[in-house]
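Researcher: Can you fold this with 1,6-di-O-phosphono-alpha-D-glucopyranose in place?
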Amino acid sequence: MPTDVLLQLNTYPLREGLKPTYGTAGFRSVADLLPSTVFRCGALMALRAGALRQVTGIVITASHNPEQDNGVKLVDPSGNMLDSQWENMADALAQATTAEQALREVELIKQTWAVGTGGTVMVAHDTRSSALDLCKAAAAGISAVGGTPEPALLLTTPQLHWMVARRNCCLPFSEVDYFQTLLGAFEQLRSSHCPSAKAQALVVDAANGVGAPKLAEAAGRLSDLGLNINVINSGTSGALNAGCGADFVQKEQARPAGFESIPSGMRCASMDGDADRLVYFVMRKSGHAQLFDGDRIAVLAATLLDRILHERPGADASVRMGIVQTAYANGSSTRYVRSRLTECEVVMTPTGVKHLHHAAAAFDIGIYYEANGHGTILFKPSFLKTLTEGSGGWRTEMGLLSQVMNQAVGDALSGLLLVEYALCRLGWGLAQWTDLYTDLPSRQLKVAVPNRAAFTTTDAETRLMTPRGLQCQVEAEVAKVSQGRCFVRPSGTEDVVRVYAEAENQIAADQLAKAVASLVSEMA
Ligand code: G16
């Protein structure tokens, strides 16, 4: 086999000077530079499948990034992102400069993990035009180490994560099963708890991505339940993530492309290119998009779950519930949870679903959402088991919610069903959701630097360690601003350094972000 692998590795050489790095959610770059990385990721995930004797997964996507980019997300047998121990091996293999060196990395993995031969890998891709060639590279890498590549499918990232998790638990795992599980549970929740809910219209910006056809598949069933979905940016004309999508709406808080004729006040939502992020918004007459971001979705979810837990008989029996946030969480949302949802713990982690997911899994009910709309609610398996041991409305309701919410990874479709159910179950409109708390004005900027690796952080990314001295300068800027908060971190998905600033008013937040961005540029 080594000669075959070597031959194959030579077919997918690493471009000279390239050093691919496993970032926040796998490898990303301009699509043309990726074949070698994707081939090697195929081999890695087949070896991981072989080591654990379970199925793993690969999604070819660059999520919120532009059409010309692509990337690879690696899915563990649990359906979560690749185990952090394997990230270093992924880096070593992806960065090997010659086929011989890459082969040595493969042999090292096989020896360390006692892998005989590669296992089965499920492969999915989004709508990017570079997808099919990269899927071929992934399949070649899987086969090169004796693994079995499954035929590549057009799926959202969370669908593939869900399928891998279910398949390894010997549960039905097709796409039909996915829709049946999420929508079937949503139908039961709506008919049991909101039987006379009024029909609701929702306009969804699908970012011209894979979420569009998938949402279209669900729209008929949702319309029978009185949820009428109108999908805009469905990919028929506009470019992927260009002036639209969850990342655009969250960062710019402005009208996405295609929404020119949508009246102000209308309930709208936006997904990203691979449908793992969701934010809600309402257009205001000023042209400003009033945002309901991931923080607000998490608070809505916590309010719903708190209500269900308090309504149950024997409400004093303890259920540990927590919200996991990152430094991007608006300070007002954190303060609201700490002061008003006192039975809900708050935990902070670095950016990246891979970190939030693990922290959330420690709770009976762990709610995790990044401000950018990436998240889900996890129900601990031992807690779910206690639910099936008894009967009663609240137990069934929790159980159904655990089916609506993707238990493997953040999922925009789950998020949409959650928000719609929570609002109708609480009897709320968008006004009550808005009134929970007032966001502190904030601003996010991207700074292009020659080497983003020079920026390292600590304390869940709230403080810089290097470049030396920069953190003190950031703090000096923050001290000039009322209710100021600011942090700097390197992106793990784009070649930029990110600056986040928050302050008492928008002008101050903008000035703080700008001042710190200048410091970053000077230091870089
Ligand atoms: C990925 C991760 C998210 C993260 C985002 C931005 O999202 O899954 O957890 O928040 O990247 O990360 P960074 O600030 O490091 O660029 P997606 O939707 O792009 O896959």
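Model: Folded with 1,6-di-O-phosphono-alpha-D-glucopyranose in place. The radius of gyration is 23 Å.
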